[in-house]
Amino acid sequence: MLNLIAWAILGLIAGAIAKAIYPGSQGGGIVATMILGIVGAFIGGSLFNLLSTGTLSFAATGLSIGGIFVAVIGAIIAIFLWGLLTRRAA
User: Fold this and answer.
1) How confident is the model at residue 51 (pLDDT cuts 50, 70, 90)?
2) DSSP of 20-56
């Protein structure tokens, strides 16, 4: 249960920072921001593992300064990918 709360906090922080950094309007409320941040934590954690160990594994970052940084980078990637998907659908 404590892990879920930590992930929700990490997702909210990372998603909010990524939305503030990324240019343009992304829309969505607090739940979308949290989901975006959690997805970003998985993307960032997986990419970090790939770059540091050379193997691709599905991993998330922890609630730390480095973890938030990696999650924000992952959330920015998630915003970019979501923009590509929704632009093609429209």
Assistant:
1) confident
2) HHSSS-----HHHHHHHHHHHHHHHHHHHHHHHHSS-
> Which residue has tokens 């990419």?
47
Residue 53 domain boundaries: 2-89
Residues 74 and 45: beta-carbon distance below 8 Å: yes
Tens digits of residue pLDDT in 55-77 = 877 766 667 787 788 888 888 88
H helices then E strands: how many in the chain? 3, 0
Spell out the residues 6+ positions from residue 48 whose beta carbon is closer than 8 angstroms to its own: 59, 61, 70
What is the number of domains present in the chain? 1
